Amino acid sequence: MPKIFGRIFYYSLVIIPLYIIVKAEIYQSRYWPEVIRVKNIQLTSSDSIIYQSDTTLVPVNYNGSIDFRLLDPEKRKDLFIMHILPAIVITRERLMDELHHVEFIEERTKANRQISKFDSIFLATIKAKYETDSLTELKKRIYPHPVSLALTQAVLESGWGTSNVFRNGNNIFGIMSFSSDDTRSLIQYSEDEEDRYIRTYNSSLESVEHYYLLISTVSFYRIFREKRWEGRTSYQLLRYLKHYHDGSNQYAEMAQSIITSNNLDRFDNILIDPRYKELSSLGKFLMKY
Hints:
Helix content is 52%, strand content 9%. By secondary structure, the chain is mainly α.
């Protein structure tokens, strides 16, 4: 009997390390996306909005809307920023994770290592999403611009949350619709004008995601994307967004004033609270598989 137990112990010393080595190779052969646990909050009043710090953020998706026109102007500014900030930071974090995923695949390709089925499907999907087959261009299109720039555009395009398209359709950035396949609503400034449509969204998070995708695919913003990839600041990038509004320098000047007067660049390095992020590890993989 002792001999049997001795053999079992001996084999376990050999088999277990081999098992871990094989599993480790499987684990490392594919990318493991970061998971953000987003809290859904139904907006019933301005009190539903969580005040965030400028260092760590609780990832929140607000459903419903409140009328920012009814709030005191100064209180309105703070609450609008706190309302939109989570959607922008969540989107930025997801985009950075997608970028890291592409870089992981690129490194394995350069090393002539096999690409997993999971990674192959991801790459095909994201190439179609961003309308490019070039990995170099794909990385530039995914890479997000600073939080402060997205915030200031949200302020300008929604009038601090008071615009009709924001209140009735979660359209933060005034994005128009040119396809009947879109979820949208009709707008008319006068009876003589042709029908014009504005996009509508189910949530602010959905609106922010589409805004980043729009800037990442429309040809007007090609130079903007180049400069963004170079790591330019919000102030430096503003000059390349003329096509977003009226093509004049006035838009950039107003945006710069909003960033400065509201100290929006303090949010550029904000991180999601680690308690709301799930990262895969070899230990978790071994326990699950």
